[in-house]
Amino acid sequence: MKPPKVTRPKFPKGYVDRPVSYLTWDWVAAQLTESKNYWLCSVRPPTPQAPAGRPHVIPRWGVFVDGKVYYDGSPETRHGRNIESNPFISVHLENGTEAIMLEGTSRPAGKPSLELGKRLSQEYKKKYKDLGYAPEPNSWDGGGLYVFTPRQCIAWSKFNEDPTKFVFEEE
After folding, report:
1. pTM of the full predicted structure?
2. Which of 113, 125, 144, 161 is the most buried (most CB within 10 A)?
3. Structural domains of the chain, count
4. Which residues fall within 8 angstroms of residue 19, CB to CB, at 6 or more apart?
């Protein structure tokens, strides 16, 4: 993964007039690695009863590996069906004070390579074994693994001091 371009988010006048620093991507990546819960926001497709564009938010367990968020779930769930229709989602961590908000795309990852399956399994076990979830490297061989690729991130540790926008090149 190439390092992202670092800039400032655009805020209305008076929100953040004199920020003093930028966050580093390493700081953001550490938060993404350590977080146990990720909030995923997808958009519902149109139905005869409702127009498209209604948001759907769900907490998910996942792991941050090689600059991407991997998470699992059935393609039959609401968020799985939403992603099938529209892969653009946002991901947010639980902390609103030290905020990290990502925008990008999610897709089924398919069967991971043996090496990636082992890495994902190890990372999941580090985070969730005490919560009763310890998938094996072949747990996703039949599907159910998703990969989120960030396109941009807005983050801050102190809103008035270091709001930072990271923009990633398309792969």
Report:
1. 0.94
2. 144
3. 1
4. 8, 160, 161, 162, 163
